Amino acid sequence: MNTSTTRSTQQWQAADAAHFLHPFTDFQALAKKGSRIITQAENIYLTDSDGHRILDAMSGLWCVNVGYGQQALIDAATRQLGQLPFYNAFFQTATPPAIELAELLAEVSPPGFSRVFFSGSGSEGNDTIVRMVRRYWDVLGQPQRSVILSRKNAYHGSTMAGASLGGMSGMHAQGGLPIPGIQHIEQPYWFENGGDMSREEFGRVAASWLEQKILAVGPEKVAAFIGEPVQGAGGVIVPPDSYWPEIQRICDKYGVLLVSDEVICGFGRTGHWFGCQRFGFKPDLITFAKGVTSGYIPLGGVLVGDRVAKVLIEQGGEFEHGYTYSGHPVACAVAVANIRLIQQLGLVQQVHDDTGPYLAELYKQLADHPLVVETQTCGLMAALQLGRRDGKGGGTRGQRFDESWSVGMVCRGHCFANGLIMRAVGDRMIIAPPLVITRAQIDEMAVLIRRCLDLTLQDCQRNGWL
Ligand SMILES: *Cc1c(COP(=O)(O)O)cnc(C)c1O
After folding, report:
1. Sorted alphabetically, which PANTHER family does this protein's record hold (predicted)?
2. Considering the domain boundaries, does residue 14 fall inside one?
3. What spacing in Å lies between the alpha carbon of 379 and ligand 1's midpoint?
């Protein structure tokens, strides 16, 4: 049965509005407008309930790395559901898919990572991070070492710990966050904070904010620093190349654990298996989720480096933490199939050698568009900062639009209407297409992007914003 044909779009929308509270959504506003109902997908294209074809330049929510409709993943799930749909890993038991995935993750992880703790999502993975780094210092007899440092405009998930680690002010404003023992430094966002500095100069300055914070808190109290190699939800903020090596040096200097949240950057997104490899740093812990299963089924976790694993295993005793679905056999079977497919298709290499550089080239050309004041790409993630190039009101790199004009949302509306999913973070337009995207499809995407920028430009001119 094809469920999309069982009801009309309006019927779906009515039932949706009546019963389904969506994440990160103004419930009332959406109910008035009606959701877009997505019914099918294949490769990089979605189909909605009105039969429109949409190029999904966001890989669902940064996760469908191998694209939609991959039979190997579907078969792995179906087979495992039949054989053993669930068993837990609590009571000194394990299932073959979980063991196989743990082994395979050790193979594709950076050197020094041979162990994994599974969760059901990225947020839960970061909850595990908080528990694990604090436990690590406890076991070492330094329980006062409990403060975790993070960055403003970071996204680390939406559970209490995940949202606290994250640096989204809107999230902190609801529900009494952050939880105690988490502090934030400013992000390495050159367009916003770079002043007159060159990118590389700014990268070192932005890293020095970590050292200042460690000294302000007291190095004996700082447990860990967490960051996304490239901030995803924050707007594809690609740090200068000088940033991460300096962060690494500072963490090493004070013995602070370094955590790389690779929920987006992991599994090929940057043209490397993990983003830390793109930026040349060696974390102690890595959070993963999203791309590990290409989003076909939920799974997340923490890759545990030797430094932490040795202490927890040899001195830690029982670690009082875990989830019902830690090592879920169906999720793990899909992840194994997904990682093998990434290997077979050579997707990491393809992004590194071919499609990543090709996208970068096209984005350089988009930098000529009168609405675009900055472009950034990293592998297959990219951002277009919209603004005024005349520097009206100052600003060496162009000027932001008035926030109340919501130019990003105007642009996003044109994208939707023209069959393209591109996300707006303020006036920063971002993409992260499936890693299977071809050069021809990148061309197709670039044509759509330029068309939507042109339509947005016309709106801006009509409203006198330029
Ligand atoms: C999406 C995301 C998370 C949260 O993952 P969920 O599966 O939504 O809980 C955490 N960190 C980063 C960097 C993310 O992009």
Report:
1. AMINOTRANSFERASE, AMINOTRANSFERASE CLASS-III
2. no
3. 19
Binding-site residues, ligand 1, Cβ < 6 A: 62, 121-123, 126, 155-157, 228, 232-233, 261, 263-264, 289, 300
Give the whole-angstrom CA distance, residue 23 versus residue 53: 24
Whether 257 and 225 have beta carbons less than 8 Å apart is answered as yes
Tell whether 334 and 382 lie within a shared domain.
Answer: no
Residue 453 lies in a domain: yes
Helix (H) or strand (E) holding 435: none
Task: Enter the pTM of the model.
Answer: 0.97
The answer on 352 and 339 residing in a single domain is: no
Which of 307, 326, 345 is the last residue before a domain boundary? 345
Q: Residue 8: inside a domain, yes or no?
A: no
- Mean pLDDT over 244-251 rounds to 98
pLDDT in tens, 315-371: 999 999 999 999 999 999 999 999 999 999 999 999 999 999 999 999 999 999 999
**Which atom of ligand 1 is nearest the CA belonging to 298?**
7
55: nearest Cα among 440, 380, 422, 425: 422
In this structure, the dihedral spanned by the alpha carbons of residues 261, 134, 116 and 246, taken in order and rounded to 10 degrees, is: 40
Domain boundary among 330, 345, 360: 345
